[in-house]
Amino acid sequence: MSLPLPRWFAHRGGGALAPENTLAGIRLAARMGFAAVEFDVMLSGDGTPVLIHDETLERTTNGLGLVCETPDARLFALDAGDGERIPRYADAVAVCRQYGLLANVEIKPAAGFERQTAEVVACQSAALWLGARVKPLISSFSLEALEIARDLAPQTQRGVLFEQVPADWLSTVRRLQAVTLHCAARHLSDDILAEAKANDIPVLCYTVNTEKAAKSLFSRGVSGVFTDRLDLFASETSAYKGLHLGG
Ligand code: G3P
Ligand code: MG
Fold it and tell me: How many CB atoms lie within 10 A of CB 32?
């Protein structure tokens, strides 16, 4: 299986130019020429996978309380910004497939829901992306979630996500049969980059919101960056680096 790896990923859908984790954001990223988007997936109170970052509704919607305790009927009536609704994962996949976007699906389980979230996202992913030209890349800070994704949807590619990359990261990548390493740009050392390069593992960094930072990371060997500043990188988005994942 091979997958072109774009250099720029629109973070949380449309970055800072649209309400985060919404279909409007994903569509905007596609229209601006982005070939890849990242979004966060969590379970609703009814166990439906939806796009949202926080465990609570307050910051990004006009709702109150925990996402994992909110039934769908209430969740999907909320305003997620500019009249946008919280999308179901299935709806986000449909938009990504329509535009041929590479989706980095970040499994973002609420605390205590790691297994359940991973099971649902893995199983839905295998079905929703069936036959897609551009396959998704599943990532998570939760290694437990990635382990479950590996077991339930082995054909769906995985990236291991760390804030700060631990010394034993490579054995984790191998164990999870992951194809990429994702991490916070500010903590990334040249030693890790050298080890990734030696093992042919692309490194993707979040969140990169200046041209200077992006240039520096690419020159150090980083393969891709997640950005909120779609406006800064739109002119460069159609340029692929020509990297392929998974051989
Ligand atoms: O997946 C990269 C990045 O999105 C991780 O951080 O908190 O924005 O989901 P966060
Ligand atoms: Mg994320």
Answer: 18
Identify the nearest ligand to the CA of 55 by its number: 1
Q: Are 89 and 118 in contact (CB under 8 A)?
A: no
Token pair listed for 28: 């905007």
Which ligand sits closest to the CA of 54? 1
Tell me the pLDDT tens digit for each residue of 111-143. Answer: 999 999 999 999 999 999 999 999 999 999 999
Q: With contact defined as beta carbons under 8 Å apart, do 8 and 246 qualify?
A: no
**Ligand 1: residue whose CA is nearest its atom 10:** 53
pLDDT band per the 50, 70, 90 thresholds, residue 236: confident
Q: Answer whether 161 contacts ligand 1 (Cβ < 6 A).
A: yes
Count each helix (H run) and each strand (E run) in the chain, helices first.
9, 11
Number of residues assigned to the chain: 247
Ligand 1 neighbourhood includes 106 CB (under 6 angstroms): yes
State which of 20, 42, 53 you would mutate to test the pocket of ligand 1, scoring each by most atoms of that ligand within 8 A of its C-beta. Answer: 53
Give me ligand 1 centre to Cα 164, in Å.
13
Domains of the chain: 7-235 (3.20.20.190)
53 is catalytic: yes
